[in-house]
Amino acid sequence: MPLNIPGLLAPFQLLWNPRIILPHVIVTDIRQLNFLALRKTGYRGAVFDKDNCLTIPYKDTLVPELQDSWAECREVFGESNVLIAESVSHHLSVPVLHHGSPKPAYRCISAIRAYFSSLPNPIQDHELVVVGDRIFTDVVMANRMKRRVTCTTGEADKIPPIRDREKGPLAVWTNGVWQKESMVMRWIERWLVDVVARRTNSKRELSDLKEVFTKSSPQPEVRQGKIPLIMKQCWSLLHKK
Q1: Full-model pTM
Q2: What is the mean pLDDT of the chain?
Q3: Which InterPro entries does the entry mention (predicted)?
């Protein structure tokens, strides 16, 4: 697997913009997403990560438990409006983004924008949902797509009122894993999200958005990824502060 330089450099952006790592919605997996609610609120397209979000890492077949939710997503948005942000995928029934730079590189963002602007009914950044299991690639990429949205009369109602007009896509973090991978880094990401959310008073916003865009679902079978005992102890100590 090639080294993801943009992903390795992303944490340095925390120094001047800590909110770059904050997702808007946190779910265990896509079964908890209410795609109809997203569409009714004005979201018209979606960008998905593949590994450990839709498939087992480095495999190209959908996790069986996600069949119904994936079908619902494609039906609600339309298959051409759902994009897989991976270089290779042949069995997920939606377009695949062939990009020369890995997420969250700005060249990858440009490729995503080029695809959605080329559609018969172009989709703008603020009409997208970006779904992935990694903070420093998927969530950072979504937040890097923020830019001022100029609304004409009548168009403002199409943009979710809960969110700032400067924000781009809705960043959805799936924090469950179908197969253990990079668990230490995942723990660090989870810890950083919690710290930044508390220090920027963003927990209320996360709760409000989750209430709007998620639905009750059966107890997810996806693994949360057990944190080693020493990490759990560190987590507990940090929360006592």
Answers
A1: 0.81
A2: 82
A3: PGP_Pase (IPR027706)
